[in-house]
Amino acid sequence: MARFRRSRAPLSGPQAAAVAFSDLVARNRPRLLQTATALEHGPLAGEELLQGALARTWNHFDPLWDDGAFCSYVRVAMVNAQRSRWRRPWREDPHEQVEGPDLLDDAQRQVDDADELERVLRQLSARQRTVVTMRYYDDLSEAQTAKALSCSVGTVKSQTSRGIDRLRRLLEVATTPGAATDDHPTGEFPALV
After folding, report:
1. How far is 176 from 172, CA to CA, in rounded Å?
2. What residues contact 38, with CB distance under 8 A and at least 6 apart?
3. CA dist 141 to 45, 133, 137, Å?
4. DSSP characters for 54-91?
5. At what angle do helices 14-40 and 67-87 cross, to 10 degrees?
6. pLDDT 10s per residue in the chain (193 long)?
7. Number of domains making up the chain
8. Do 130 and 164 sit in the same domain of this protein?
């Protein structure tokens, strides 16, 4: 006797939307998390920013979105969330209070190029940092970046140019032997305008 399998009923409505949303998140999460981490300067804050953006995206989700439309919407949600946080009064960041495990020895504590770049990125203005992150971490075009930030392409070009120039100067100061320690006993970089 042959056994017949009962075919599953096709998903419809909210079930189909939930499956489509889950698939889009699964495919695009690593890239979106990289952007969020770069925008927030750390994995914990980046994860928080991404989760909030995904929650806001779900409220307006269209199951017909492709990967590009989905990522664009989430990026805009992340930038808007970050902008609204800038407008709020400063409060303590709970992530700064968490102490990480002290498992690394002195040789491993040396700063590598990625850490150095992240440190100098923090010294850019918020607008420059956001534009540079979206242009070079997300590999967005000038037009896509302008659309995500609700500004003109000219603004994106000028902010990118100024941000890259400032990054070069900051990296030169950081890599010049004795520059940070001799001139600045605290080890902080000078403010370059």
Report:
1. 6
2. 46, 121, 133, 137
3. 26, 12, 11
4. HHHHHHT--TT--HHHHHHHHHHHHHHHHHHHHHSPP-
5. 50
6. 455 444 444 556 678 888 888 999 999 899 999 888 888 878 888 899 899 999 998 888 888 888 888 998 999 999 888 887 766 665 555 555 555 555 454 444 444 566 777 788 888 888 998 898 888 888 889 999 999 889 999 999 999 999 999 988 888 887 676 654 444 444 444 444 3
7. 2
8. yes
Which domain covers residue 163, as residue numbers? Answer: 112-193
Of 41, 67, 24, nearest to 130 (Cα)?
Answer: 41
Domain assignment of residue 45, yes or no: yes
- Ranges of beta strands (E only) in the chain are none
